[in-house]
Request: fold
Amino acid sequence: MRAHLDHNATTALRSEARDALLEALDRLAGNPSSVHTSGRAARALLDDARERIAGALGVQEDDLLFTSGGTEANNLALAGALGASGGHAALVTTAVEHSSVLEPARRLASSGHPVRVVAVDGAGRPDIAEVVGAAAGTALVSVMAANNEIGSTCDLRALVAALDERYGVDRPRVHTDAVQTLGKLPLDLAAWGVDLASLSGHKIGAPVGVGVLVRRRRTPLQPLFLGGGQEAALRPGTENVAGIHAFAVAVELAVHEQPVFAARARKHVEKLWRGVQDSLPDARLLGPPLEDPRRLPNTLSILVAGIDGRTLVARLDLAGLEASAGSACASGSLEPAHVLLALGLTPSEARAGLRLSTGRATSDTEIAHAVEILSATLGKAS
Reply:
């Protein structure tokens, strides 16, 4: 038996989404932009998926721009919003964002856009007052809803309210990378007041290669690609209708199941942490305290001093436990995790991080097996 505890990297295609995907692939023969019968059938399925996703997220149907995933959605949000603002529009973001936000930010900075990166506290949260202060004269603020590595979150509703109070109608637009939030914590884009939000399918059991940028209030964007007029001419290219249809099923289920999943995930993470503490009392919990209701319920990030995280991941894998030393997008890097460095850890400490993340299919038996493997492996490591 193997224990897979790397669901923040990706999670298995759920059966309902697989059935929807295969159904669509079997049914569809046309391009949704074509006006003939097959094209209209594809368009109808796409429109139905758009309606279902919008309903589940509490937004308008024309707020949705379908993309290839969270990375493209983040890139479109940043480059698209600044490009539409004209000139060298400024950006504010934080030090713990996903690389698909920080790398575009660096590219934008190199092309003349002022970019301000706000630090975070020891739990991985930015100070809202500092973000608001840094936002003077900027076009866009990008702050993630929940961090994929350490489980920290930002009170976006409070952030947007503070920006409104400080800048009024001239406040910058607000984007959030909400990829890790969907299905794990309550997601209420309308109440948060954000203008742009990125979501990804494969984090909730939909196929890889589909995501969405939610664009509320007709937020102006400049497209990344040029071509056809699909997705309000902001994401040209033939839509992945079958993938989007499966994504709609997964979104509805993720939103509906969120409270139950969160409660179960918290119990699983607490049991994992107790197992780590029993075998390695010096292990350090990273991110917010486990009892903090705002943290990602399924994510456990720990520091195992003196052990390279990638080496530990390899040992655990050989023993039957799949975990991560950080973000899957940076797993091949020899550099210490930027999120852990942002917490104030030394490079040596940042290389000693281990992330465990549970998913919808994680069972009590799998958790018990993982605890056994952790106890044996960490005991030898100490």
In short: Residues 241-279 form the longest helix (39 residues).
